[in-house]
Automatic annotation (TrEMBL):
Keywords attached to this entry: Fatty acid metabolism, Ligase, Lipid metabolism
Protein name: AMP-binding protein
Keyword Lipid metabolism included in the entry's annotation: yes
Domain AMP-dependent synthetase/ligase positions: 17-210
Domain of life: Bacteria
Keyword Ligase (UniProt): yes
Pfam families for the chain: AMP-binding
InterPro entries (UniProt xref): AMP-binding_CS, AMP-dep_synth/lig_dom, ANL_N_sf
Length: 230
């Protein structure tokens, strides 16, 4: 067994995230430029958004070890989803937004993701092109619904509609959210990262909380669009 690894007394990324959100409070955690104006989110905002994502995933029946995938450019929703996924003991599967339909289908089938977050109509189209190959996907959540307001699909919902899934039981689910962070283990799988596939089919590298520390350090500030990858 590898020696224990802790940062500031925390042995999982989720615990460190929660601790830093409480520590930094109203200080700015994320800035995103929207129509030329920087929009700021505090550490408490960051935690609240991640918690709401986690609670909505639990409302969909997400359990420890389940996988949720994200295909998007850098944006605030990406990191909110990523942290919400990990805080409930689930695993984030990040896909490059440059992947083509067949590549997306292969990776999603391999990871067994039950939920897919997509950035916009362009990324949603990749799912729609191969949806007959992805029966295991239960929901597809679109961050940016521009151009999709009248779109109807049994599995596809917008970001705000997804977040509202937890509203009816938010107090109960919030308690469970905290319990899952407390119960996190360093050997839990935090992230799946796929190889390029240049010498064969892409392979998923499973990164535990213990071994994902070097590439996932929480910084006091980041600017989305030129964001420090955690």
């Amino acid at each position: 067994m590898p020696p224990p690894v802790q940062i500031d007394g925390c042995d999982t990324f989720s615990k460190l995230f929660r601790q830093n959100c409480k520590k930094f409070g109203d200080r700015t955690a994320i800035r995103e430029k929207d129509f030329g104006i920087w929009e700021e989110f505090s550490w408490l905002d960051y935690y609240a958004c991640a918690r709401r994502v986690g609670c909505s995933l639990m409302a969909l029946g997400y359990r420890k070890g389940d996988v949720a995938a994200i295909i998007s450019e850098d944006n605030k929703e990406w990191v909110f989803a990523d942290l919400g996924i990990q805080c409930i003991g689930a695993t984030t599967h990040g896909l490059y937004p440059t992947l083509q339909e067949k590549q997306v289908a292969y990776q999603l089938n391999d990871s067994g993701a039950k939920v897919l977050f997509v950035e916009d109509e362009e990324q949603l189209d990749k799912y729609l092109g191969v949806e007959d190959q992805l029966d295991h996907l239960e929901k597809v959540i679109v961050f940016d619904m521009e151009g999709l307001r009248s779109f109807q699909h049994d599995k596809v919902i917008g970001w705000e509609e997804f977040l509202a899934l937890s509203d009816a039981k938010i107090e109960e689910l919030s308690v469970e959210f905290e319990r899952r962070i407390d119960g996190g283990d360093p050997e839990d799988i935090a992230t799946l990262i796929y190889t390029s596939g240049t010498t064969g089919a892409p392979k998923g590298a499973a990164m535990s909380h213990r071994f994902s520390w070097p590439s996932r350090i929480i910084t006091p500030n980041c600017r989305l669009g030129r964001m420090t990858k955690f």
